[in-house]
Amino acid sequence: MTNNDTAVSAGRAPRINFAKAAPKAFKALIGFDAAARQGLDRALVELVQIRSSQLNGCAYCLHMHTTDARKAGESEERLHMVAVWQEAAHFFTAEERAALALTEAVTLVSRGGVPDDVYARAAAVFDEATLGGLLALIFTINTWNRIALSTAKVPGTDERAV
Known about the structure:
Layout: H1 3-9, H2 18-21, H3 23-37, H4 42-56, H5 59-71, H6 76-81, H7 94-107, H8 116-125, H9 128-150
């Protein structure tokens, strides 16, 4: 089933398949995403992608990354706590909390930029290379969220295997 087929079955008008319509841009984004992940802890990667997808309201990406997190051994308990990580801080390491705070600030950048204290907290727990990768990861998941939302990707239809 194609994205257009699933969009129609979900009651949405069909939209373009971004990968086919802009293959060079799509391939470049895949490369950027792969480079961003290098050296980052897999659990941290998934938590960041989940939180950004929650904030952006991207059900397609949220479904994909919670599924990936489960496959990587993430607990249901922690997955349920990502949306309320500040109130459930004891479920997450200092590094994860710093990354989640940075994810929120960058994802919601139009609400006042990235506050100095949020950036300083991340810079205190990550070396420069890791912080750079983390920022790149946040940039890519926000881009993937926008692609999925703009092209009406349907949750539960992970097209990576297609």
